[in-house]
C-alpha cells in the first residue's frame, strides 16, 4: 500500500462530544432564490420540528442567492424573531456557491442543507445527521430511489432522475443511488478539505461533491426518504441537465488523468478496525492481489488479441515481442493507478522504465517458450502456440507481481516521515487556522449582510472565510 505525505489527511472519525447548550451541533442551510412566499412557512416549520425532536443545539441559516424580490426582507425578519435563525446574502446566483460559502464559514461540526419547498419529510432529518454525529459516516444523503422510499412526482421527473443516476453509474462508477435529492449533510472537517476540490457552483455541486468523496474512500450514508414533488419548482430542467452532463465530462476527465489530490481526503490508517496490523501479513496485500489479478486478466486478453492480429502478417517472435511490449505499457499504467494507488504524473516515466525491465523478463520467458516449441516441432499449430504462451505468461505474472510490489511500487510507509500508526487517536491539525482557508477581512461575493461577521455564538466568534475551488494553503502544495 502506498502512503505518501499528505498534509490534508482527515482525522479519525469520533462521536461528537455533548457540547454547551449555546454551541450549535447542526447547521441547516436553506439556499433560496426569490422565495418570498415559501421561505417563512419553511423556516418556521423546520424550526418547530428541530426544537421538538432534535436533542442538540442547532442553527438554521438562510442563504439568499441574489434574490430580486422580498426574500431578503423575509429572511431578516425571521432572523430577528427566531434566535436560532441566521440570514446570509450573496450577490451571485448558484446553489453550490451558497452552500460552499456558508458551510465554510460555519462553526457547527455537522452541516446540512435542504430545499425550501420541504419536499422531503422532516422525519428523515435526524436519521440523516445521526451517523455523522456518531462518527460512523462522513457524508449522508437522502435517497428517493431506495426501495423503501415513498415518492410522489410526475413521470417526466422520475424518468430524468433515474436516467441521470444511470449515467453517473455508467460513466463515473458512482455507487450512491440519488445524487440530486436536496437533502444532504456532511461533517465540517470533511467539508473543509473536500469543498476546495469542488468546482461547480450550481446544481452539479452535489454530484461532484459525492463523486469525489466516494472516490476518496469516504463513507456515504443513505437514508430512504418520503418525498413529494413541488409542482411550482422553478428549476430549468433542460439547462440543468446540460450543465450536469458537462460536469460529468469534466469530473470524469479529471479522475482519468489523476489531477485531483484525493489523497488529501484519506482517513488515517487505523480508523477502520479492519486496518489493524496483523503479524506476518503485509499491508494491503489482499487488495493488491485482487487488483493485480483483474488487471492481469484484462492485459493477458489484450496481449492475446494483439498477438493474434500481428501473427497474421509477421513471424511469431516479432508478433510476441510487439504484443507484449504494448500490453506491458498498458499493464504498468493500470497497475500503477488501480493496484498500487499511485496517482498523478510523478515518477510515471521511471515506473514505465522499470515496467519495461519487468517486460524484458516476461519477454525472455515467453520467447524462450516459443523457441523451445519451435525446436520440438517445425510447424506448431496456432492453438498450441497460444497454450504455451498462456503457461509462460502465468509464470511471468507471478514474477511480475513480486517485482512490482518490491521494486517498482514499494511500500514507502517505513521511509515516510508522515507514517500514521494504526490508532484511533484523532489527528489534530497544528495551529488554530484550517489548512484550506484564508482569513478574509471583507465578506465575499459582494455580501451585504452576514450573520457570521463579528457575531459571538457561545464562546466562539466566527468570521466569514471564503473558499473557492482552487484555494489552497502553500504548505499543502504537492
Automatic annotation (TrEMBL):
Pfam families: Glycos_transf_2, GtrA_DPMS_TM. Residues 292-409 form the GtrA/DPMS transmembrane domain. It catalyses: a di-trans,poly-cis-dolichyl phosphate + UDP-alpha-D-glucose = a di-trans,poly-cis-dolichyl beta-D-glucosyl phosphate + UDP. GO terms for molecular function: dolichyl-phosphate beta-glucosyltransferase activity. Residues 28-192 form the Glycosyltransferase 2-like domain. InterPro entries: DPG_synthase, Glyco_trans_2-like, GtrA_DPMS_TM, Nucleotide-diphossugar_trans. Residues 469-478 have a biased composition (Basic and acidic residues). Keywords: Endoplasmic reticulum, Glycosyltransferase, Membrane, Signal-anchor, Transferase, Transmembrane, Transmembrane helix. Residues 431-478 are annotated as: Disordered. It is found in: Endoplasmic reticulum membrane; Membrane. The chain crosses the membrane at residues 289-310, 355-374, 386-403. It comes from the Bacteria. GO terms for biological process: polysaccharide biosynthetic process; protein N-linked glycosylation. Pathway: Protein modification; protein glycosylation. It is a single-pass membrane protein; Multi-pass membrane protein. Its EC number is 2.4.1.117. Its main location: endoplasmic reticulum. One of its GO terms (cellular component) is membrane. PANTHER family: DOLICHYL-PHOSPHATE BETA-GLUCOSYLTRANSFERASE (PTHR10859:SF91), GLYCOSYL TRANSFERASE (PTHR10859). Belongs to the glycosyltransferase 2 family. This is dolichyl-phosphate beta-glucosyltransferase. It comes from Streptomyces sporangiiformans.
Amino acid at each position: 500500500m502506498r502512503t505518501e505525505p499528505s498534509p490534508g489527511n482527515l482525522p479519525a472519525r469520533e462521536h461528537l462530544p455533548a457540547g454547551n447548550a449555546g454551541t450549535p451541533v447542526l447547521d441547516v442551510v436553506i439556499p433560496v432564490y426569490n422565495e418570498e412566499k415559501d421561505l417563512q412557512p419553511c423556516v418556521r416549520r423546520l424550526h418547530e420540528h428541530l426544537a421538538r425532536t432534535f436533542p442538540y443545539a442547532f442553527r438554521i441559516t438562510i442563504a439568499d442567492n441574489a434574490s430580486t424580490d422580498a426574500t431578503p426582507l423575509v429572511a431578516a425578519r425571521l432572523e430577528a424573531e427566531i434566535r436560532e435563525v441566521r440570514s446570509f446574502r450573496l450577490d451571485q446566483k448558484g446553489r453550490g456557491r451558497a452552500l460552499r460559502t456558508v458551510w465554510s464559514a460555519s462553526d457547527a461540526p455537522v452541516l446540512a442543507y435542504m430545499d425550501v419547498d420541504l419536499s422531503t419529510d422532516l422525519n428523515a432529518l435526524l436519521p440523516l445527521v445521526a451517523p455523522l454525529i456518531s462518527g460512523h459516516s462522513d457524508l449522508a444523503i437522502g435517497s428517493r430511489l431506495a426501495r423503501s422510499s415513498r415518492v410522489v412526482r410526475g413521470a417526466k421527473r422520475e424518468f430524468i432522475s433515474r436516467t441521470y443516476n444511470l449515467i453517473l453509474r455508467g460513466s463515473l462508477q458512482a455507487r450512491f443511488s440519488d445524487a440530486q435529492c436536496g437533502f444532504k449533510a456532511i461533517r465540517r472537517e470533511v467539508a473543509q478539505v473536500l469543498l476546495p476540490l469542488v468546482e461547480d457552483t450550481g446544481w452539479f455541486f452535489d454530484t461532484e461533491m459525492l463523486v469525489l468523496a466516494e472516490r476518496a474512500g469516504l463513507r456515504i450514508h443513505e437514508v430512504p426518504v418520503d418525498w413529494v414533488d413541488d409542482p411550482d419548482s422553478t428549476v430549468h430542467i433542460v439547462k440543468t441537465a446540460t450543465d450536469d452532463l458537462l460536469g460529468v465530462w469534466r469530473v470524469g476527465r479529471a479522475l482519468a488523468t489523476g489531477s485531483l489530490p484525493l489523497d488529501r481526503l484519506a482517513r488515517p490508517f487505523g480508523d477502520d478496525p479492519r486496518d489493524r496490523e496483523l503479524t506476518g501479513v503485509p499491508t494491503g496485500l489482499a487488495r493488491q492481489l485482487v487488483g493485480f489479478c483483474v488487471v492481469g486478466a484484462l492485459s493477458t486478453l489484450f496481449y492475446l488479441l494483439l498477438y493474434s492480429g500481428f501473427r497474421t502478417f509477421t513471424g511469431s517472435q516479432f508478433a510476441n515481442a510487439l504484443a507484449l511490449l504494448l500490453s506491458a505499457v498498458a499493464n504498468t499504467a493500470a497497475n500503477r493507478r488501480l493496484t498500487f494507488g499511485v496517482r498523478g504524473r510523478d515518477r510515471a516515466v521511471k515506473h514505465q522504465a522499470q515496467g519495461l525491465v519487468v517486460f524484458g523478463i516476461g519477454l525472455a520467458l515467453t520467447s524462450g517458450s516459443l523457441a523451445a516449441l519451435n525446436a520440438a516441432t517445425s510447424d506448431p499449430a496456432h492453438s498450441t502456440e497460444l497454450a504455451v504462451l498462456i503457461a509462460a505468461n502465468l509464470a511471468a505474472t507471478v514474477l511480475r507481481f513480486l517485482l512490482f510490489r518490491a521494486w517498482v511500487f514499494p511500500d514507502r510507509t517505513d521511509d515516510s516521515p508522515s507514517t500514521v500508526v494504526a490508532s484511533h487517536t484523532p489527528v489534530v491539525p497544528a495551529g488554530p487556522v484550517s489548512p484550506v482557508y484564508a482569513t478574509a477581512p471583507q465578506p465575499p461575493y459582494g455580501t451585504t449582510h452576514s450573520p457570521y461577521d463579528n457575531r459571538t455564538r457561545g464562546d466562539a466568534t466566527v468570521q466569514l472565510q471564503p473558499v473557492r475551488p482552487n484555494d489552497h494553503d502553500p504548505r499543502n502544495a504537492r
